[in-house]
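hey m, so remember when u said the tokens were messed up on ur end? i reran from scratch. heres the input so u can diff it against urs
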Amino acid sequence: MIGILRTPAVRIGALLTTCFLLVLVCIGTAAELQAQRPRQPSQGAFEVTSLLGRKLYAQPDDAAVIAARKKLAADPKNVSLALALSQAQAGRRQYREAIATCTKGLAFAPKNADLYIERGHRELGLRQFQAAQRDLAHAASLDPTKLDAFYHLGLAHYFQGQFAAAAESFGKARALAKNNDSLIDCTNWLYVSLRRAGKAAEAAEALKRIGPDVKNTEPHLLFYLRLEHFYQGSLTEQAVLPPKPADPNDTEAELAFDTVTYGVGNWHLYNSHDTKRAAELFRQVVKGNAWNAWGFVGAEAELKRLGASR
């Protein structure tokens, strides 16, 4: 009897040892594969459903959000601190939270144009274009010297397909530009708004402000400057399009990709009327993670208007 009982036990022990070794091998292989994959951005609270039905999420608090929240809690009626917290939250794509912060600020500073600009800016990111339009128009009425009020108001009109109104707002923003960075930024949107409004001659005139002497100082504005050179014909589509970012955490690379790829897709809409090529480029943009980039929002809006799936 003893011999009969021992044989299965030995076999079971050997089997367990083999299984254990296989598990170790699988764990090691999985770890190696995981190390080879690009890391996905950490995910926070749900923010909004995109225009194409995709769930979009914030990123968790970072040190900047935590510090800004503590400072505002210590001085809750300080407009500068409210703006700082909203901007820190927006930096983590916490747009609902940023809007709530601005709304609380407006309760004690109801005529502060900067709070309306900040709230409108974040409403754009949440695809709340009409709410953004109201806030930004009010900000512009409170302080007509605020370039950002007119710039973001232009975006609110643009994303709704109100291209003539967008061009008017971007024209007002550009008139307030005090440096080449603002000139580059405003000219890009003014040009494409005029083209989409069917005002090609006015668009060409607007683009003349971007001469060979116009250089950017802010690195991310190089994207718009290169697009403007593309519109002028000095860069080809192949030369201007950036590579698709390999790392989903590389925000700068994705910002460049989204901005330029949207701009080239948009060019195909108003220049060659090639909706197939335009939709192809827009689909590449909306596969990314930088859902708060204007190129991303624009690509969504165009795909929805075209009735194309993502």
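this time it looks ok to me. DSSP finds 15 helices and two strands in the chain. if urs says something different then somethings off w ur setup not the seq
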